[in-house]
Protein: Alanine--tRNA ligase
Organism: Hymenobacter psychrophilus
Amino acid sequence: MLPTAAHVRQQFLDFFASKGHHIVPSAPIVVKNDPTLLFINSGMAPFKDYFLGNKPAPFKRIADTQKCLRVSGKHNDLEEVGYDTYHHTMFEMLGNWSFGDYFKTDAIAWAWELLVDVYGLDKDRLYVTYFEGDAGDGLGPDTETQELWRKYTTDARILPGNKKDNFWEMGDTGPCGPCTEIHIDLRSDEERVAKPGAELVNADHPQVVEVWNNVFMEFERRADKSLLKLPQQNVDTGMGFERLMMAVSGVKSNYDTDVFQPLIQFIAKEVGIPYSGAFSSELLADSSPADDSTEANSQQLTANSSATAKTDIAIRVIADHIRTIAFTISDGQLPSNVKAGYVIRRILRRAVRYAFSSLNQKQPFLYKIVPVLADQMRGIFPELKAQQQFVQRVVEEEEISFLKTLENGLRRLDSLEEGFRQQGNRIDGPTAFELSDTFGFPLDLTALIAREKGLSVDEEGFQQALAAQKSRSRNAQEAEQSDWTIVLESEDVPAFVGYDQAEAPARILRYRR
Ligand code: ATP
Ligand code: MG
Ligand code: MG
Ligand code: MG
């Protein structure tokens, strides 16, 4: 029997409650009023103001599970989804925080206690990292963290890490500090003997994965790049819940846990195609640290793999994407043609296309999965259950709208394929634009299909065609409307008026003097 997601999540919250933490609900995944962020992408994002000192934290110790999305901006994991075992578009980040209270000693002691004593993970499978220091900054190695870990594990499992992985900064200026990550090696005993896990940490190995990051904010980065020691030291941690589930379940993929299995089983039954789960072995055979680029993997997978691997990938992608779609809509972001709304529309269309091409779903289908997810999450995220019908309606409308053009767009692509092969295996900009403009294919969808066919896309040419069309339509509008001009193309228009009616974004007209 797999451990249930509800139980494992609760164990985390109970553990930190027992250490004096106040448990708070997840903030909505959709960010309003922050020009730098469309979606919450880490557990600390909702607490930014406390770290910046703009507001006092209401409690010195907080813990929670935060809905996160990594599909745009600095963190974009979209391309990995379905191909690797442990990156999702939407995931839960479990976190514990200290706002000027405990620091490295307690954070490290509790992280170890939770993983080893509460969850019963084998300590010989755990690796930890510390910041190795950076010559450029004049900052030495974080020997304090290294020393603290020596109480719990051996030097062979305490690894130095570089600035990219082990030094966290909020932005160009502001709070920052070293971090320590905890990785788990889930390979078989023989594999572990053959090659020590230490060599695979941070090497994109599908079974040696990062589970938890503990950030120790002890500095402030000033505009002149210097570092100032903060008077108040903070702890900010983030643990990927789905990865934790993989570790405690002793399985090889996040998709084999109770978080994803109900969705996967439902999808497989609905489409009448079994999910083989052979994923792990197929993928493992295809990916080695020496050849770890996702693009390379996906191309190789597509070229080599059986029909089963293809349907498995589609099922995983859909199980992943429906979570993103459902949670963002229930948190207030409708699909649209601009900004955050377009990110959601792109993901939704990506899922529709996987269902259409790989699982033979010619009718709306994704909306049917929403109740399964809502029931699964009703204890921790009741907002989805409360809006289930609304979310279903929005998703179904989106599906209907895209299915009207998807098949023709795919046909158009196929008919031109020979020509692409003759022009350097590349889909030209005007065609990519036509696919977007006429058939509603977001550029990243065209790029995905191209990749599967071993083609590339002229993205620059696409942008040029798009700019040319924008300027044409602006001139035409201005001529037609004489005194009126479009001043804003915005999603900030009363909700739900235009998103499903046309491809055109809602417009606000203003009298031109
Ligand atoms: P990775 O190196 O695996 O991409 P990360 O270093 O980008 O992870 P952090 O920003 O440190 O991740 O986030 C904290 C934790 O959140 C990670 O240790 C991991 O467990 C989890 N996590 C990060 N990205 C994802 C994702 N796309 N899907 C699922 N879990 C994730
Ligand atoms: Mg990452
Ligand atoms: Mg990492
Ligand atoms: Mg990390």
Remarks:
- Residues 125-232 form a domain with the BirA Bifunctional Protein; domain 2 fold (CATH 3.30.930.10).
- The first helix runs from residue 5 to 18.
- Residues 42, 70, 77, 87-88, 91, 93, 210-213, 238-240, 242-243 surround adenosine-5'-triphosphate (ligand 1) (CB under 6 Å).
- Residues 60 and 101 are 6 Å apart (CA to CA).
